[in-house]
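Let's practice the habit of predicting before peeking. Look at the sequence and jot down your guess about where helices and strands might fall. Then scroll down.
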Amino acid sequence: MMQTVTREQALAGTLALVNPAHPLQARPAPEALVPAMPDAPGVLLARQAAVMLAALLDGIRAAGRIVPVSGWRSHAEQQALYADSVRDNGLEFTQKYVALPGCSEHETGLAIDVGEAREVIDFIRPAFPDTGVCAAFRRAAARYGFIERYPKGAQAVTGIGHEPWHFRYVGWPHAGLMAQRGVTLEEYIGALGAYTPEQPLHAEAGGRGFDIFRVPLGPEGARFDAPRDRVWQASADNCGGLVVTVWGAV
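Done guessing? Here is the structure:
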């Protein structure tokens, strides 16, 4: 059955790749943002990301031990953070750890910096060791749709240094598939370009099967043929395409 996804609907998806080569095209509406946690009203996330973050923290019993440090930022806030970091830390440090304004995942509402609860927390580089409850968070993240966005050893691909505190919500099954393959969002989106509605990626995550493919996204949106009896979801990839995920093994 032929389906139509408008550009506005596509840009509201969770798979947009945001980096210097792919600046942000759409920012979330204020009403789409909610507190990342009830006790952190000043740290905002897109609603679904906040729901799943709460479920993740509840699932590993991390209440009070992991805190949200930075979520959604306005373009002006990202500009100020970048300028302040250049002034205080120098350009080399800033280019390694702070995204350019307009190229920051924090402007999407889908990224969250988390930190181990401590008396003093570094806003730019919060402590998030690979031990204890923080390690449990990292191990469970993919099941709730989150990826560690800037893993160790991937700076040549992502353009950002290792940030063990920075997690990005991409949703399920994509987080699970990226974890299985050990790839970054850049690599994952690039690989999906090879799959079409006629020859989709047949994948399995969490014991369920999926068909995933990509179609061009034009100014008016995209049209594609999806099975009538299966649930599907779609998201712009911010690289000129629409990623369609069809649930249910074939």
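How did you do? The first helix runs from residue 7 to 11.
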